[in-house]
Amino acid sequence: MAINNKIRNRGRLSVDCPDGAIADCDGNCFPEYWFYTYQGDGWCDDRTLDPINLACAEFDCDSGDCRDCFGECLGPAVDLGCGCNEPGPGDLNGDGGFNVQDVIILTNCVMADNCSDAEDGGCAADTNVDGGWNIMDIVSLANCVLTNSCAGINGNSEYDLYEGVYAPPPGLNAVDQKRILERVLSIAQNANPYDKQKQGEILNILEREVPGRKTRPVRKQTGGRTQPVSRRGGRVRPKAVRRQTGGRGGAPKPWNR
Questions:
Q1: Cα separation of 230 and 220, whole Å?
Q2: How far is CA 72 from the centre of its chain?
């Protein structure tokens, strides 16, 4: 990867680095070979985890690694598997989390055979990602809520670590949510995927035991674009944890004079 003169000269920052070093977006000098290693490596190098910052125009926003799904450098939008800034699989009410309320919405649309009528075409309801909707999706969602792993359905497992993502809905505690979901699984796991009687049994349990249940997805409209409600009090661009790779030894230190 060639580092062009604009980047080498750092005209906007006017940083005087030693020979063999280049300034990053913050004006800190690093050995030139670090830029070949970090830039465009599939991770966003914005100084969140490493001292080097390549998230600026001079480095093409780390060769695109720090652009969000709308193309904005360090933008907040993310694609969780169902479109840019849309709720991902399992988050059927669009609140940014996963709990028994999502299982209720899923069971209702499976029972009514209308999951595909949702705004996202049924993407959030297809929790086992097989292109259809049946009891197996209910099994998949109930299992991932119990194991705190729903965000990993489409490779976004970093979200599973955020506080409150699997919190039960108001009026229900974690112990009761676990008990209800285990009852759902006791019926669903051995059922024919299209058995309407079993689907009805599951729905009866949910409607009887979950307070304040919601049966329709909730979306919030902002500026004409449908967006999920944030799970963290403000949409934050996810940052994957950097993996140590051979030959790098560790994060570099600024090489300023």
A1: 10
A2: 17
Mutual angle of helices 174-188 and 100-112, in 10-degree steps: 30
Condensed to tens digits (0 to 9), the pLDDT of residues 181-220 reads 999 999 999 999 999 999 999 999 999 999 875 544 434 3
| Each residue's pLDDT tens digit, 57-99 | 999 999 999 999 999 999 999 888 899 989 999 999 999 999 9
Sign of the CA dihedral 27, 33, 38, 39? positive
Phi, psi dihedrals of residue 30, rounded to the nearest 5°: -135, 155
Full DSSP string of 120-149: TTTTTT-TT-SSS-SHHHHHHHHHHHHTT-
Q: How far apart are CA 123 and CA 83, in angstroms?
A: 9
Q: Answer for the pair 253, 116: CB distance below 8 angstroms, yes or no.
A: no
Neighbours of 72 (CB within 10 A): 13
- pTM for this one? 0.69
Residue 214: the pLDDT is 52
- Joined together, the tokens standing for residue 95 give 């609140």
- The answer to whether the beta carbons of residues 226 and 218 sit under 8 Å apart is no
Q: 220, 249, 212: which is closest to 91 by C-alpha?
A: 220
Q: How do residues 107-131 score in pLDDT, each as one tens digit?
A: 999 999 999 999 999 999 999 999 9
- Distance, in Å, from the CA atom of 55 to the CA atom of 141, rounded to the nearest integer, reads 36
Q: What is the distance between the alpha carbons of residues 74 and 66, in angstroms, rounded to a whole number?
A: 5
Compute the distance between CA of residue 157 and CA of residue 213 in angstroms, rounded to an integer: 27
Spatial separation of the C-alpha atoms in residues 128 and 153, rounded to whole Å? 8
The SS3 of residue 222 is strand
Give the tokens for residue 186: 């006791």
